[in-house]
Amino acid sequence: MLVQEGITQLIGCSDSPRLDAEVLLQAACGINRTTLARNPCQLVDPQSASAFFVLLKRRSEKEPIACILGHKEFWSLDIELNEATLVPRSETEILVQAALDAIPPDTAVDVADLGTGSGAIALALAIERPLARITATDISRAALAKARENASRLGVDILFVEGDWFTPLAGSRFDVIVSNPPYVRQNDPVLETGPALFEPALALFAGEDGLDCIRALCVDLKSHIKPGGLVALEHGHDQQDAVYALLSATGLESIVHVNDYAGLPRVTSARGSL
Ligand SMILES: C[S@@+](CC[C@H](N)C(=O)[O-])C[C@H]1O[C@@H](n2cnc3c(N)ncnc32)[C@H](O)[C@@H]1O
Q1: What does the pLDDT look like over 217-266, one tens digit per residue?
Q2: Do 274 and 230 contact (CB within 8 A), yes or no?
Q3: Cys-Cys with 110: which of 141, 174, 198, 232 at CB 3.0–4.6 Å?
Q4: What is the mean pLDDT of residues 85-103?
Q5: Which segments of the chain does DSSP mark as H helices, in order?
Q6: Ligand 1 mean position to 92 CA, how many Å?
Q7: What is the pLDDT of residue 40?
């Protein structure tokens, strides 16, 4: 049985060999989970079988399932990906929740998502807060193209603009600014083995201490946040003190950390002064 062969190949390469083998077989055959579960021994045509083995090889080289399949669930939304987009991480849902807590459902407020990538954060906010006027930026044209496609497929209205952090937003102020910027240290050993090997460097690296992008964002935060508005930034689990210091130096107030599902500080938020 093909699934069994897949499991055998993936043992030692994946933490979830059965699930991965099943998902890849479904993708190769164009069938869903229920169909596969009902007919586990169904005959697979030779073309689908060879497609399955190609996918299995990619997975056995540790390429993440989301990169292989070209999509990932985030905030219960199906987010399509391309070679220029980061795979949205579950911890980024903490950032979405921090922003939602600051966006009233019944008021039209201005929201910016900087470094939107696939659009994951902006899309989740747009779905949850249909009245919000959301602007999403990225320096990568290819990532923005995918984010636009995702917005159109999900039927939400987001203004996408290309450029370096706040540069394309000159003169605009927002009630809420969120960003999950690149924050990986240039020489982080995790990059030699981890899934990040398969993701765009532009979405990951931020200089020697991983803080270059947060530093760049902090230069202009104060002039783009409305009085009392919320800034929320995702960062590495050991970067909270440095991010606190950077936000504090901008003159923003009420700085707090929010922990991720593992109990690690993952988001730091601050308020514009009133
Ligand atoms: C860590 S990824 C986050 C993607 C997405 N927001 C998410 O949470 O899944 C960082 C994003 O910032 C973008 N980026 C990197 N440098 C940038 C810059 N100077 N100006 C704007 N965006 C930038 C990358 O292209 C990438 O899409």
Answers
A1: 999 999 999 999 999 999 999 999 999 999 999 999 999 999 999 999 99
A2: no
A3: 174
A4: 97
A5: 2-10, 17-29, 33-38, 46-60, 65-69, 92-102, 120-128, 141-154, 190-193, 212-224, 240-250
A6: 13
A7: 67
The pTM (predicted TM-score) of the whole model is: 0.95
Q: How far apart are CA 128 and CA 199, in angstroms?
A: 28
State pLDDT tens for residues 6-45.
Answer: 999 999 999 999 999 999 999 999 888 787 777 766 678 8
Q: How many whole angstroms separate alpha carbon 31 and alpha carbon 36?
A: 7
What number does the ligand 1 atom closest to the CA of 181 have? Answer: 10
Domains of the chain: 2-61 (1.10.8.10), 77-271 (3.40.50.150)
Asked if the model's pLDDT at residue 188 lies above 70, the reply is yes
Average pLDDT over residues 125-133: 98
CA separation, residue 104 to residues 108, 111, 128, 175 (Å): 8, 12, 10, 11
Return the DSSP state at 132: S
Which has the closest alpha carbon to 147: 165, 168, 162, 128? 162
Tell which one of 80, 86, 169, 188 to mutate to probe ligand 1, the residue whose CB is within 8 A of the most ligand atoms. Answer: 86
Residue of minimum CA distance from atom 2 in ligand 1: 203
Query: Residue 195 Cα, ligand 1 centroid: separation in angstroms?
Result: 17
> What is the pLDDT, as a whole number, of residue 41?
67
**Whose C-alpha lies nearest to ligand 1, atom 17?**
139
pLDDT score of 39: 73
Residues 6+ apart with CB under 8 A from 66: 72, 81, 87
Query: Distance (Å, rounded) from C-alpha 272 to C-alpha 139?
Result: 25
C-alpha to C-alpha distance for 6 and 22, rounded to whole angstroms: 8
